[in-house]
Design goal:
Order of helices and strands: EEEHEHEHEHHEEHHEHEH
Shape: globular
Number of helices: 9
Number of strands: 10
Radius of gyration: 17 Å
Largest sheet: 8 strands, mixed
Length: about 250
């Protein structure tokens, strides 16, 4: 059963979709998914497929759209607003977070900066360990440094459209040390999925994430796959499903 929702977020309305678990006794196990930079809650269809399969008999799934190209600080606040909504409306017995790419960094920060929003388990899908090295790759070294040091906006014009990234976006990134925060994850299950040929968030970042985190943790490299896990999406979905079954 699928339900659309809209809530008043900290910077405007946030919209999303809830896939309620068809197995009523599993309905209060909830996975909240956070998408990547310039992405969407649909994840090119991959997030939809994952939500549909999980909600058959494993858990309910909540997907939502961040404000477009918003700063990391804003994205953190928006994820917290969604988690507040989920706790109030779905009253989860167990709550899990899945962050894709930039949403993975957001999920690490929200999960590890304190106990208020700490989930029962965490999934990192193509998630970075170093925001600086990742966004140098995304924006380009010269543009990144110009934004950081000279206050120049960065223009991205590609298959996703044309976006102007304000310099405040880059300076805001530098406030957060994802690696240091992830070290605080010392209990609870952690699943890391990463494309072996990811050229946006390099595969070594996933290995570092595994090494510094505690708890019951596992890393799966998807052979030959890219940042979006386009080639082995079905395999990635099965890994998430099996992990969820073990931990609910």
């Amino acid at each position: 059963m699928k339900q659309n929702f809209t809530i008043a977020g900290p910077f405007g309305e946030l919209s999303g979709v809830i896939n309620l678990c068809e197995a009523e006794d599993k309905r209060r196990n909830v996975l909240v998914m956070a998408h990547g930079f310039r992405g969407s809650m649909d994840g090119g269809g991959r997030a939809i497929k994952l939500a549909e399969e999980l909600s058959q008999d494993i858990c309910s799934v909540v997907r939502f759209n961040f404000t477009w190209c918003t700063m990391l600080s804003n994205q953190i606040a928006e994820l917290k607003a969604v988690l507040d909504f989920v706790r109030e409306t779905l009253k989860p017995e167990k709550l899990f977070l899945l962050g894709r790419s930039f949403g993975g960094a957001t999920s690490i920060i929200v999960a590890c900066e304190g106990n208020t929003y700490r989930p029962d388990g965490l999934v990192l899908w193509s998630a970075p360990n170093s925001l600086k090295s990742t966004f140098v790759q995304v924006l380009g070294e010269d543009a990144f440094q110009a934004a950081l040091q000279q206050g120049k906006a960065v223009v991205l014009d590609d298959e996703r459209g044309r976006d102007e990234i304000p310099p405040a976006f880059v300076s805001d990134l530098m406030k957060y040390d994802v690696a240091e925060l992830l070290k605080k994850w010392q209990s609870g299950p952690l699943l890391i999925l990463h494309g072996e040929k990811d050229c946006i968030v390099t595969p070594d970042q996933a290995k570092t994430n595994l090494e510094i985190a505690g708890g019951i943790k596992e890393l799966h490299y998807l052979e030959g796959d890219n940042h979006h896990l386009d080639l082995r999406c079905k395999e990635a979905i099965e890994l998430v499903k099996n992990w969820m079954k073990k931990n609910i």
